[in-house]
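Would you mind writing out a protein's amino acid sequence and the numbers that encode its backbone to help me picture the idea?
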Amino acid sequence: MIEPAFIEGIIKVLLVCIIITAAYIISTRNLLSLVSMYSLQSVTLVCLALTLYIHESAPVLLAIAVVTFLSKVLIIPFFIATIQEKIRIKRDIEFHFLSPTSSLILSMALMLVVYMALTRVLKGTPAWENHLLFFGGVIGLSLMLMGMMVMLSRKRAITKVLGFLTMENGVLLFGMFVTKLPFIIEFLIIIDLIILVLLTTILTVGIDSTLEDYHKRLHRFHLLQGSEEQP
């Protein structure tokens, strides 16, 4: 039988790996590397869910691992890689407000704020008494905020989608450790993400641009439609 202390050590290592992947997603400019790192982050989540299943013997964790592998490791990266190949853009060098360095510094500050906030909120609860659950909650909430930072700091729509997907990984991670969300909720969230990626594939007319350029393209399209309807 595997010692619980050994399993907890593996879980902590996997949580650290998730944060490292998030830091890479925030700082890198290569789109292929972004997709690969998102896939690696999702694989780490799968390994984490399986390790928690061994530790807690909860069937819902095994189901989450299977669905996460199918959707986030196989299906979603395939669609995003297809989009990236069609738009023929390999780098996202434009940032809105934060540079990669400042984004990493802000991420570390956010993790400290999350730690302090959860210390106050969860004090006296089972999650506070179990240091592993508390650590997982801090990492999960921090991952959500880091994904949101990617959405706010990047300009290209495809990179914003990856930020949204990273944020959802944080929701899933937080749910596994703290809130214990029902499996059906996690499944519906994953279905929503698949729909999001499918819609993004359909809207490739503007995904190779920034959101501002995309709005201009749509504006020109409506003007063209209006001119065609005039007698």
Summary: The first helix runs from residue 4 to 27.
